[in-house]
Amino acid sequence: MGLDTAWAVAFLHAAALSMAEHRDELIALDRAIGDSDHGENMDRGFEAVVAKLGDTPPESPAAALKLTAMVLMSKVGGAAGPLYGTAFLRAATALGETADVGPDVLVSALQAALDGVVARGKAEAGDKTMVDAWIPAVAAARDAATAGEPAAAVLAAAASAAAAGAAATEPMLARKGRASYLGERSVGHRDPGAQSSALLLLAAAQAASQQDSHAGSPESPR
Amino acid sequence: MSVALVVVSHSAKIADGAVEVAREMAPDVIMMAAGGTDDGRIGTSLDTVMAALEKASCPDGVVILADLGSAIMTAESALEFLPDPDSAVLADAPLVEGLVAAAVAAQGGADRKTVLQAAEELFRRRQPDAEALGSMVAEGPPTGSSPDFSGDFTLVNEAGLHARPAAQIAGGLAAMDAEVTINAAEGGSMTSLMILAAGKGTVLHVEAWGVDAERAVKFVGGLVEAGFGEA
Which of A21, B9, B14, B231 has the most CB atoms lying inside 10 A of its own CB? Predict the structure, then answer.
């Protein structure tokens, strides 16, 4: 079975928990090479997403992602706002009205999210940005879908590749964003946006595996 | 009416301050500041930018100036959400100087394309790569050819060609279809005119090419001889 609206809601709740849990870690990463607000901004943004989900429960996975996009663009404040906002928005558009997201549509949505981030931030592979987590994530997701894996396994593959991609940003020289002003001094630090991207994909994968194990009666991990 | 301007910055103080500076030279232009997040922190907010765009919305169109990083990305996102995405355009220009140049052009009644150009030409001048230089030469006066109209005018006001007169000249010329030089400086560029540092008694040699050449020279002459309305 594919991923439904309950999955989307569970994913966003899990994302909020993860951002709260990793807030200080992201702040520390961003302090090293940025303006040290990433952890706080992401935590605040997803807290607002959860509040909005409570106010206006979405009726489709796409509606949940679109709501998330709008809230993040207005509440995050830093570059992550428009970048993740665009990613969620493009993913929502790719999902369309489907209530049951299968592996192929899921891959299209992940690709659309990556394309959105690239279009908005103009970053390329190796620039030491969140793109370096998203590119391997989308590739791994596509491989898994091609191999006939279900949606939950596709997300798990994406999350695992994103984590590796985030770790691989450590030796890179930043060429985009605030970190690029540091030049050589950016080397040796993991990119905070790549790390939060990996965390978000992990939350999406965990929500999917829970949905699978509960066989259609997902619990909100609130 | 004129083209309206929206300033997007990480900081409410920067956005407000930039508008304050530009307002001195363009008192009639609608300028909305969209700085900081909606809860008063450093950052940008789509809501804040959308609200400013809505307030600035006018038939002549809107030009957006943004400072860096997320301000530019939030402005781009806002454009995608506008009911009519063509009703506003984002300038690739330095924030304060670009805003002042755009405001002066808007005050002079220039259309949106010209206002955008006024802001962006500053950027091209600072980064004289081959492509940008090529386009400037292509758009500039036909070097070598004699002007379609010219005139000499003596500055009579005490303060000479300072910021406000330079803004008046550049703003007015922006709305005309003419390439104008004043003592070899570009007439449509406020900063170029100010760099002349022309004081009282200086003779300004004005040359113009194009359909509105005569009107442009007479416009500059009229302002100069009237002392720009100053003592």
Answer: B9
